[in-house]
Amino acid sequence: MPSSSEMWQEVISGPEARALYRAGRAGDAVRLVMRSCYPGAAAAGPGEAAGLVTALVHRLLAEAHVPSQRKASHRGVEVDVAVPGLRGLDANPGGVLLVCIPGTSDPAEISRIVGSYRRIQPVPGNVWAVLPGPGDAPCRSFTAGPDGGTLPGFLESVRGFAGSRGPSLAG
Questions:
Q1: Which of 52, 66, 86, 104 has the maximal Cβ count within 10 Å?
Q2: Phi, psi of 77, rounded to the nearest 5 degrees
Q3: DSSP strand pairing (77-83 vs 69-74)
Q4: What is the distance between the alpha carbons of residues 32 and 152, in angstroms, rounded to a whole number?
Q5: What is the pLDDT of residues 21-68, one digit of tens each?
Q6: What is this structure's pTM?
């Protein structure tokens, strides 16, 4: 029997989701994945839901050809996603977006994680969170849910960031 992450990958990168990505319907792809996978992941706990959300965020960025760096460390802080990457963070913090995907729904822990990101990213608006379920974060955030939550708007928001502050996403 395949593991839960293998099952998610089948849906996230399956033919129906790929067709939606190619058609420019990333929000619909997110809703498809969340309807198919989120209930089981959420029932297994916030860590499983965060694993699903992390896999989906990485797929969205890859399908949209958004330059990003994943699972990297900067000045002792583990960063889940940096757009376009951590390399320019010290020289041009306004051009770098940091996205945390906490494996918890605990507000205090989410605040601690966001605080660690803000220690290395001096532009407060350039720290976002993608939460594995309903919740709140002390920064711009997107939430996952069985209907997609607010996660369907994540990719367009990242594109908006990159188009206004970061590298061109053309091509």
A1: 52
A2: -105, 125
A3: antiparallel
A4: 10
A5: 889 999 999 999 999 999 998 888 888 889 999 999 999 999 889 999
A6: 0.89
Q: From CA 56, how far away is CA 116, in angstroms rounded?
A: 24
Q: Which residue has the tokens 């997107």?
A: 142
Distance from C-alpha of 98 to C-alpha of 116, rounded to nearest angstrom: 11
Strand boundaries in the chain, DSSP class E: 69-74, 77-83, 97-100, 127-131, 140-143
b/e burial code for range 84-120 (CB count within 10 A of at least 16 → b): bbbeebeeebebbbbbbbbbbbeeeebbebbebbbeb
Which DSSP string corresponds to 19-48? HHHHTT-HHHHHHHHHHHHHHHHHHH-HHH
- Answer for the pair 49, 83: CB distance below 8 angstroms, yes or no: no
